[in-house]
């Protein structure tokens, strides 16, 4: 934008002259270099003074007046006066005066506007994420000019946040706070905070964040598949738990049965049943959870019954062997006694060779 001031005066010959000073407004990023220009028309050698927003004289007819090496006179002609300001800061912002001293003093102001682009925002955890509770997160952009715009995003969708803004001199600090309910499945979920600003050299700057959800330790997951054959193939497969109802977290999808986060309350025998028009078949599965996070699985209760039966059989066999041994010992002793009695009481010696069973 340019504004022209027309300065009218008469010389000693009463001839009308038009003298003009044109100052150009400048916008620059903080840390950059600004060029402040004053354009002259019909310049006759009058004094030209350039002043900063605090009305301190920077240059007097091209000669430095203020000891600030960031300002340099780069051009002084009858048509254009130009200075540069390096390493611009927000404190340099304001109106720079181009003054032309004639019989009356006239000036024009070149406005310097300094933009401050935001850095990548930061994420502050205001409240830890606990299963079944809420997570409170705040995205902060501590410094920008003008105020930056913040957005929370998750899975490509914006999350509404509570925005706040604080003015710090000529710059602004902005923040956006969200509160979101969290479950165990949200652990590791990706969120992002995006900052938008006209001074950015890219469309946006992004801070990525992953939820860290705290939850109590639990067991593993169980997945069972009921393999069915038949002609025609049974389509109706039913899952049940013997003498109990299926757990709340049980998920059934056709022949597949799943339980997440196993605990000892899931102990029991699960039954898979399939049926077609020509018959019915079933199989069972016994689950024993003996420690959080550890699972002992068996396809049926038969192995435990076999082990118990074998032990019982061994004990019974030992007892039987002892009984038989004792019985045989008693029988043998009784036979000798009977033989002796027969021999002593009989008249025929040949009768002593007979055996008598007790």
Automatic annotation (TrEMBL):
GO CC annotations on file: cell-cell contact zone; membrane
Bilayer disposition of the protein: Single-pass membrane protein
Ranges annotated as spanning the membrane: 304-328
Coiled coil: none
Superkingdom as given in the UniProt entry: Eukaryota
Keywords in alphabetical order: Disulfide bond, Immunoglobulin domain, Membrane, Repeat, Signal, Transmembrane, Transmembrane helix
Places the protein is found: Membrane
Major site of localization recorded for this protein: membrane
GO molecular function annotation: vascular endothelial growth factor receptor 2 binding
Domain Ig-like, chain residue ranges per copy: 118-207, 219-288
Alphabetical GO biological process terms: homophilic cell adhesion via plasma membrane adhesion molecules; regulation of Rac protein signal transduction; regulation of wound healing
SMART domains: IG, IGc2
InterPro entries in the cross-refs: CD80_C2-set, Ig-like_dom, Ig-like_dom_sf, Ig-like_fold, Ig_sub, Ig_sub2, Ig_V-set
Protein name according to UniProt: Cell adhesion molecule 4
Organism: Neogobius melanostomus
